[in-house]
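Hi all, posting the design record for the shared folder.

TITLE: backbone redesign
STEP: 1 of 1
STRUCTURE INPUT:
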């Protein structure tokens, strides 16, 4: 009887997620992920070269990701303007790993379907510590969050104007599933110094 109840609940939740267009599809974390955050705190963001989005959108998504990881998850994010290091070679500064992001985009009349696969990899152990997939459809015609739209349009061009808010919401949903490290005072100083150089 208890197994039937569990199956019914799981079936309901799965159906609810499909019907309500849930954003985060799955999250996987290695058993040592939480423990590794005591030492693993420095990353670079890399946009997967197989992502099916434009150059302006790539720059915008990478910028959003770097800011979210640094400001909301407290990682020390080293700049990576040339998008190098996917194989963990030549990491800048004291970076210990990479956050790899693969994005796909399908534009329709007044909406956009976005998908983001994120992986956090420790380069010293060559281990994927965390992975998640987020996917959803968003309207591109809304007038909400004008300051966000304006910020990214000024930085990456008019072509990203209708996409800035959808990209932000998708990436925020993805990153909200990620646990960040706790920085000590010296690490906070390092983070401030790195951010001041960008």
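Okay, here is what came back for every position:
SEQUENCE:
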């Amino acid at each position: 009887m208890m197994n039937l109840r569990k199956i019914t609940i799981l079936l309901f939740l799965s159906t609810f997620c499909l019907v309500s267009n849930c954003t985060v599809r799955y999250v996987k974390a290695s058993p040592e992920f939480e423990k590794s955050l005591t030492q693993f705190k420095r990353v670079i963001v890399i946009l997967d070269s197989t992502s099916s989005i434009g150059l302006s959108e790539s720059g915008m998504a990478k910028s959003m990701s770097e800011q979210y990881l640094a400001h909301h998850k407290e990682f020390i994010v080293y700049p990576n303007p040339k998008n190098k290091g996917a194989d963990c070679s030549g990491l800048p500064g004291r970076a210990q790993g990479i956050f790899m992001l693969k994005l796909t985009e399908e534009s329709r009349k007044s909406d956009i379907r976005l998908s983001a696969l994120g992986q956090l990899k420790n380069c010293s152990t060559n281990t994927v510590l965390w992975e998640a997939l987020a996917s959803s459809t968003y309207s591109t015609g809304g007038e909400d969050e004008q300051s966000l739209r304006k910020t990214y349009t000024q930085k990456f061009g008019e072509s990203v104007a209708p996409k800035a808010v959808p990209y932000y919401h998708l990436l925020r949903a993805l990153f909200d599933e990620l646990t960040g490290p706790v920085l000590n005072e010296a690490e906070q100083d390092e983070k401030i110094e790195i951010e001041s150089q960008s």
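COMMENT: The first strand starts at residue 24 and ends at 29.
Let me know if anyone wants the other runs.
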